[in-house]
Amino acid sequence: MIYLDYQATTPLCPEAREAMIRWLGGPDSDTFGNPHSPHRMGRMAAAAIEAVREKVAALFPPGGTVIFTSGATEAINLAIKGTARGDGTNAIAVSAIEHAAVLDCGHAMRDTTEMLVLPVDAEGVVAADTPIPEGTQLTAVMQVNNEIGTIQPVEQLAEAAHAAGGYFLCDAVQGAGKLAPPRNADLIAVSAHKLYGPKGIGALWVRDGVELQPQMHGGGQEQGLRSGTLSPALIAGFGAAAQVARARMEEDTAHVEGLWHRARELFAGWTLNGSTEHRWHGNLNFRKDGLDVARLMSDCRRIMFSAGSACASGSGRPSHVLRALGLSDAEAKSSIRLGFGRYTSAEDIETAAAMIKTCAREQGL
After folding, report:
1. Is the pTM of this model over 0.85?
2. 311 is annotated as an active-site residue
3. Catalytic pick among 13, 170, 300, 311
4. Backbone angles phi and psi of 160, in degrees to 5
5. Which domains are seen in the chain, by residue range?
6. H or E segment at 124?
7. 61-83 pLDDT, tens per residue?
């Protein structure tokens, strides 16, 4: 099989797997302790978690705290709900191409929260000078879009959010470990499995001075913001993956750039969705008019690729991201996404392109 769905998840890097093994803790080990227990084994696990917290914190700007969560969806919910005003006068601003974790969270708060949707242009980018209404307590714009890979002017938008008197939340899931973090964000959400770490662990970075209301109650873990027993094994894997991603950032970027240019050559004549310039080049979302994507995916079973985001691909609805660019339903439904990264080879791209183009020709395209 050829895996080209890196926006949905990434392979676990060997360094993360190795770091996790010790903390999986069999009955004959001393590493299965609850990190919230006061005895020696518990303190060992807690110390390991704190050491990893520093490694993960290196993904973010200075002057903040890492709160471990089950993933970016939980982190985003904590950020949006945790900054809501208690008097029911909430107002948030979100881009039209945000992940469902942001949009659905806003819709779920509709009885107490007004949600302003910020448009994108035909290239899938929010204008850097987009005004944020005064009194908006939270603006949420992602760093890199998961469907089309466009990079947003998050630092300029953070300034606008602050000028309006509110906080700025950045979903950096697709950018963490690949791009520098937005230096002036107040809250940043990431997920380990998008940067070669394990699934089931993520983090919300909270700038010093930002106050949140907890959304989970129980043991008061994670500074009272996220109750629940932490997993030393998952956190260890997250830390190792984060450390490797930072060390390999330039190397990984150069590798992805080479794959991008080769893929663009191989798919000459197909129409790119979203900006070429303002984009993470590990994401190739493109279309061919008249393409039956469901048939293509069936015919190309050896290739793991997507017709949209993994979270929404089963809905049957046209992508809200592609619709926000101004694409018709037919154009959106004739689009596919190829995602590649650290472990993708040029041969993978070439073999996949040959198969996809052959199957498209069999559709008369």
Report:
1. yes
2. yes
3. 311
4. -65, -40
5. 2-9+249-362 (3.90.1150.10), 14-246 (3.40.640.10)
6. none
7. 999 999 999 999 999 999 999 99
